[in-house]
Amino acid sequence: MTQELEHPGARGLLDSATLLRLAYNGSDGFPRAIPIGFYWNGKEIVVCTAATAPKVKALSSRPNVAVTIDVGDTPTEAKALLVRGLASVDIVDGVPDEYIAASRKALGADHVTEFERQVRSLYEQMARISIEPVWARFFDFGAGRMPSFLTKLAGGA
């Protein structure tokens, strides 16, 4: 797993992608897949949200999650990092630093200061959701690093 997460392509996705897709089981038992901003701290994926968001309650009782981070619209450009993990939810006072760090990836430097001021005035508390990876796989379809069943279909080893 560490080898997958430390692959240069995977690190590129973790460091520069602005959204991931988080899959979890909702409180009603039905699966959810949502796009959400994230921050990789080198050990875990951190997402932050309102303390009252439905995912907070759901993840507190059902911590198993799956994550997909992907880029590229053509076979030669397509890359994807798939992660399965365990989510831990902490309600924290104020705005977690990771929320601002994740926002920096999506906002231009000239907008971050104003965004931070606004968000800090909006939230007294937030949920900090840390996802500890337990399994990971990085695919770079253009470089031939793809699932084994696709390699076989393409005539590879």
Q: Could you explain the architecture of this structure?
A:
By secondary structure, the protein is an alpha+beta fold. It has helices at residues 2-6, 8-16, 54-61, 97-106, 109-122, 148-153; strands at residues 19-25, 31-37, 39-40, 45-50, 64-71, 79-93, 125-140. A 7-stranded antiparallel β-sheet has the order 2-1-5-6-7-4-3. Strand 1 and strand 2 form a beta hairpin. The longest helix has 14 residues, at 109-122. The radius of gyration is 17 Å and the shape is globular. Residues 149-153 have low confidence and may be disordered.
Total E-strand runs: 7
Could you give the order of the helices and strands?
A: HHEEEEHEEHHEH
Q: Spans with pLDDT under 50 lasting ≥5 residues?
A: 149-153
Number of helices: 6
Mean pLDDT: 91
Shape verdict? globular
The class by helix and strand makeup works out as alpha+beta
Q: Beta-strand percentage?
A: 35-45%
Distance between the termini: 22 Å
User: Which strand order do you get reading across the main beta sheet?
Assistant: 2-1-5-6-7-4-3
What kind of sheet is the major sheet?
7 strands, antiparallel
The proportion of residues forming helix, as a percent range, comes to 25-40%
